[in-house]
């Protein structure tokens, strides 16, 4: 497709024009249109980029209703790209907005998309019970809404007939994927009937999807003519409406149909047509690749057919020989040769799904077994006959033959055979709708397998039991218990199975007879196919090899994630089970993996490879797509190296299959039930199989249970946070407890963990930890139990709403340092829908003193429900702190507070910063200030408000208000007059003590009004970072702040343009400033002179500073040394930030600093060397020589400290220096560098009270930081020292302190 088509160029021009004009609505509209153009061209990544632009503009500048189409588009694209987690975020936001605006049309669309996404997740998971529940819930909701809209269409809207029809298609697909073929047929047929009744045009895409899926249903029902009729109608419609992707998938579907009836030439032609269509489309490389694989599969199937025909000739020859061998000593050998030949034919026929032939060969095998008088072979033949009838969907006869097989195995006391027969019986009963009987059979099979100590058969039975409880009976608790048993069993067997070669399986003759068989058959015949081996894969064959050997080999293949035609015959067991049969074995316990369905509005992209998912799953297709049948999904033993089939892709329906996905082309209806033994890929069990530190799982043994925890969320750089792991293990352990234990709400307290005999510290290097772990697990010691009632309520509510518990939220609720009245769940990826279980839990919990919902994605809907929680709680007294900052709340959130009388007496803290409130919130803020009599802290920073709202806030204040803290920084434009009016009102408040005006540019008149406020009020905190008041303004303000009865403890003057003059004056007023505890002077060019004054201030015994921030102050390393050395005589400072101060000394030195260096004795004193020392002389000489040539880059003076989020203004990193200059300076400095680092280390070691030191971006080498950390670890910090050192980030701290990760807006005093 042409990249620069006129429509796209015109749209981009229109977007640029709207952007330059500042017309946000048009800018968003054109960005959306451009994204839609790229989406239609199949360029999804580029489309997503433009749709995100649309979303950002709409979010920041447009009414919330404008987000509806944006969320819908972004959600649909993310679904096509199979980014399900992010897709759900936007789709739930779409639904929430639609509900807020009572827009049924958008609710219907959002419900459809959510149903599609949960359906996709379900098809890729082995045990995600909530996803299938949610898929049903949203699809049914979409159906109800579509019917409502159809019956009562909104004015000027369509009839919504299309949506109603597509809703039938979606539910039909879901029923098909749950093996409810009759129900799927009924719903899809009803959809077509509606099309006819409503006279929908023949060439309608909705009809196309219905025909597509009906074709799939009929194919599963083996009604080939009906299937072909619907598939061809699908192709014709897609061709007429120009839907190339749908047409290509239609041909893939038709190719599969031909493949399953062994018409390989026709199948090849269909795939070739699909390939031509796929190549004509943009960005369909994955689809092209998958079709190529299917063509290869067909060719290999043709080869199998030829081999089968050749073997049939060999069987006829053996039958003729038998006529002459009757009554002779060679009779038994001839019978064994025929048995081996039949085994091979049964195997080949199952590989190409020739089930009629399969039945014929199976019955002949039964006759041979009778003549041999071999009951085991007879039992095997009964299993194979049962399989034939099961695949032919004659369930009554299948049950009859499986029952015969079980009875015969029982008569010879073969426990393995009994267990496998029971599993197969259960599979048939399940397919026939007798779910209770199926579960009983699976449980009986499991009991027998346990008795016989057959782990693989146990696994098969457990997986089928799990499927029954999860899908058939909706019993989540029992399904979870069984999943735990499955995981435990897989872990114990995994390594043993992976190490085996499928080719080691043997047939069931005795050694002598097996040799006879091989020597007298054709050149290299196979014996009993019961072991599932291809002839080329077999060596010696023995009749007494246990059935389980084949089962084990079958379990291996899925673990390799390969799509192929299996070389082993599938047994009578459905893929739910693995059955032994003379002819084959199939994978046990695999959930059927159909390719998916889709949605009402567009084709779901099937081209995204699913190699990242476990085996047993197919690519999902768009709405009409239902995927490949299960035969391919079930084949497991095709891995024989000689067979050449291990790479054969499945022949899928419209959606082509990736080579990494094992699957079968045809399967009985039971196929979907089976669960893949590869649910946990290698990384799912232990750390040792993953690349790098992320994506790895760690096994923890707690009491007698194993818990698997993903490492990535607990990583800090390349260190593993053990404390975070402890919390996650505790929460996951609670989730898997049985219901009766979990009902008490008791969670383990974990204080100790050991790995390889070593107790784990707070942080462990991932490499060291991995080596210590090996293939084992971490031993966890439970030191007690704590009751967390709110966690118990939350998990129960998740179950009621079919929502998966949010592990981030659970970890927050587990916090042992706070009471259950303090609910702090920030940064948990919560949205208005996903928070519902928590709100319901709070409704029951009732008591709340602190609620922190910050840094989530919550909107007005949450506040509406939260209001109901507060009202229902009945709490009419007791303080309440409400932290809602950094969400997606709008002005009507404040309206909900205004309408909640309970809050008038309780609300003490309201933090709504970082939400786009705009000036529409002004009247609501006024009401809150007037009615909430207990409100002492209000934070409305970064809320997009202007002078108008500030004035309303000022007007609402009166002398009776108890307001003590007000934050309104980073809002603009705010005029000086409105701020001065506010200052006047604040000065009348008796309790007012803290004001935050960070980021507001303050004029001299505003500074004057601040001085008056400081004079009349007792301020304890004043934040003016980035206000540009300058040295004069700061000096003027300081006189008032430090005079009289002021008790200022916190002052922020960062990035205010202060010079050393301010520091010198501050030092002169030590008696007055002695009470201040925290001061931030970062980003001010105080230079080394200011550093000297600060050092003097710190050495003064009256100094009480606990926190001092001096990042990017151009102190130079000499100044940094002075300040740190001064701490030897300071007993109060705990935190010091001197990041980004290296440029003056570490690289090239400016003229002023050269003079300072020459005239000052500071550096030699600190380094303990003589002024006449040769090294100092050399330093001065080199510095003087470079004075004219070293030009310092002034950008470097604004270098920000790494990982520091305290400063409101960030600067670009330094540009590179002139190479000659830099190298010359370094040559001059190298003589004193080691002494300098030694001096710095000595000073750090003497700063005994310091608990947090930031030395980032000061040019220290790795060796330097090691030396510095060694000094930090000695003395009073011995045993407590920690560090965060990576590249130029150098944070030294003690246990209990945090250097990174806490956002500035979340810091609490």
From TrEMBL:
Repeat region (TPR), residues: 248-281
InterPro entries, per the entry: LRR_dom_sf, TONSOKU, TPR-like_helical_dom_sf, TPR_rpt
Coiled-coil parts of chain: 298-328
Keywords, alphabetical: Coiled coil, TPR repeat
Keyword Coiled coil: yes
Segments for region (Disordered): 493-539, 570-591
Protein name: Protein TONSOKU
Organism: Vitis rotundifolia
